[in-house]
Amino acid sequence: SQKIEQNSEALNIQEGKTATLTCNYTNYSPAYLQWYRQDPGRGPVFLLLIRENEKEKRKERLKVTFDTTLKQSLFHITASQPADSATYLCALDEMGGKLIFGQGTELSVKP
Amino acid sequence: EAQVTQNPRYLITVTGKKLTVTCSQNMNHEYMSWYRQDPGLGLRQIYYSMNVEVTDKGDVPEGYKVSRKEKRNFPLILESPSPNQTSLYFCASSSTTSGGFTDTQYFGPGTRLTVL
């Protein structure tokens, strides 16, 4: 079955810089990938969804790309702020409701 | 306000004492799911339901039961809890597409369960 791999190491960046998080999947390309933000002790919150026929999607300071050749999605936060500090999760639906989440990448934005 | 609610939010219990964690959504979503989250293991799906009376196993269903008698409710039942079920549990709901995929997942606030 599919596996998702996200950078397990925390990402530390300076305020104002662009954060780039990686999500790699192992098998067939999913119909779409989703990105979520999770704060400690709270439920994940949806950020963006990108479909396999979309190369890129944007929402305010967020951008997601989807490369089916590399089997990878990149999540970018431009002009990062300390309030962006959280864990970011990547997820895919294997179809029929079976969802797989990556372990998440913890982002820390220092002022 | 659109939301997914879970109860209780915190629970400490003892091995073998049956418990139920309730989950309810007010968005008329077809799809509902339960996850557990453990340090270093991420979110793992326990059970999911694409609609009323339809449930399927996720990656870690052992030791859990679910039922979906009504669209809005999806309780998680631990018939005989054990310490390895100590975890943070999340319920989620979503609409579904005509192609059989889920859409944006809306998560509940979580239930922190400790089994002694």
Provide a short characterization of the protein structure:
The complex is a heterodimer of chains A (111) and B (116). With 111 residues, chain A is mainly beta. Chain A is built from no helices and eleven strands.
**DSSP, total strands of chain A:** 11
| Cα Rg of chain B | 13 Å
Average pLDDT confidence of chain B is 95
SS-derived structural category of chain A? mainly beta
Strand content of chain B: over 45%
Helix content of chain A: under 10%
Number of helices of chain A: 0
Largest interface: A-B, 24 and 33 residues
Characterize the biggest β-sheet of chain A.
6 strands, mixed
Number of strands of chain B: 11
Low-confidence stretches of chain B: none
Mean pLDDT of chain A: 92
How far do the termini of chain B sit from each other?
Answer: 36 Å
* Outline type of chain A: globular
Q: Compute the gyration radius of chain A: what is it?
A: 13 Å
Poorly predicted runs of chain A are: none
The ordered H/E elements of chain B are EEEEEEEEEEE
Helical fraction of chain B equals under 10%
What's the story with the biggest beta sheet of chain B? 7 strands, mixed
Structural category of chain B: mainly beta
Percent range for β-strand residues of chain A: over 45%
